Amino acid sequence: MTITIDDIEFKELLESIRFIYGYDFTEYAELSVKRRIVHFMKNRDIYALDKLGKMLLKDEHLFEEFVQELSVTVTEMFRDPTFYKSIRERVVKRLATYPVLRIWIAGCATGQEIYSIAILLKEENLLDRSIIYATDINQKSLKIAREGVYPLGSMKLYTSNYMEAGGKRAFSEYYIAKYNSVLFDKSLRENVVFSPHNLVADKSFNEFQFIICRNVLMYFNQDLQNRVVNLFHESLCSFGFLGLGDKESLLFADKKDCFEETDKKEKIFMKMK
């Protein structure tokens, strides 16, 4: 059965969610949100948007699953290996000049990016004096990230990515395999602060030397992208770095002239003013 989403009902649903739960999806890219809602409805044999709305506003557990669907959770360790290689070659030397290094991974999803950065910092002798703030809107994803348990079947890809990213050790040294899962070493998350944070509504909460937010802005409309870039600009120290996804840019951001390209291809920028 085909599901058609009426524009008025769609906007009413998002406004109701914002009013009842405080989650604001009204400035997410509309086509992406509609596609995810349709997928969510089909998987649960719900074929009317008004029925979905009533169910979401009554059932908090269902709503958590709905947020999981709308949140960006597609990730892997050392995804786009050349991005991490560029961090080693172009960013690490300056980061090493700070006595305490604060890194914000915004939209950390299920945590693979956290452990990738932690491993890189460990190999560059920076992890012990780093604090990694890992935030996401999705509480279920944060729980997975805290636990650091991932499918054993993913390790072949993760190992390949790690080696391409300039890894210096055997990747298997960082985890213990048991049954069909692996548990990453607890030392990698000892300096990680896991916390919910909503890029749409929440403010800056610290000053950082490096902010990584990859493949998140692409799901926002242009106005929201601009506001989030302003948030990152406010949160970065002078000469701090910002890392974005390969399909994202600062081209239309108000603060674009405040940044200089550190690596144009890998979308790494330095705050200059």
How would you describe the overall organization of this protein?
This protein folds into two domains: 7-70, no CATH class; 81-271, 3-Layer(aba) Sandwich (Rossmann fold). 40% of the residues lie in helices and 19% in strands. It contains nine helices and ten strands. A seven-stranded mixed sheet has the order 6-2-1-7-8-10-9. The protein has a three-stranded antiparallel sheet with strand order 3-5-4. The longest helix is centred in the N-terminal third of the chain and has 15 residues, at 7-21. The radius of gyration is 19 Å and the shape is globular. 36% of the residues are buried. The mean pLDDT is 94.
Topology:
Elements: H1 7-21, H2 30-43, H3 49-58, H4 60-70, H5 81-95, E1 101-106, H6 112-123, E2 130-136, H7 139-147, E3 149-151, H8 155-164, E4 175-178, E5 181-184, E6 192-196, E7 208-213, H9 222-235, E8 236-244, E9 259-263, E10 268-271
Parallel strand pairs: 1-2, 1-7, 2-6, 7-8
Antiparallel strand pairs: 3-5, 4-5, 8-10, 9-10
Helix pairs in contact: 1-3, 3-4
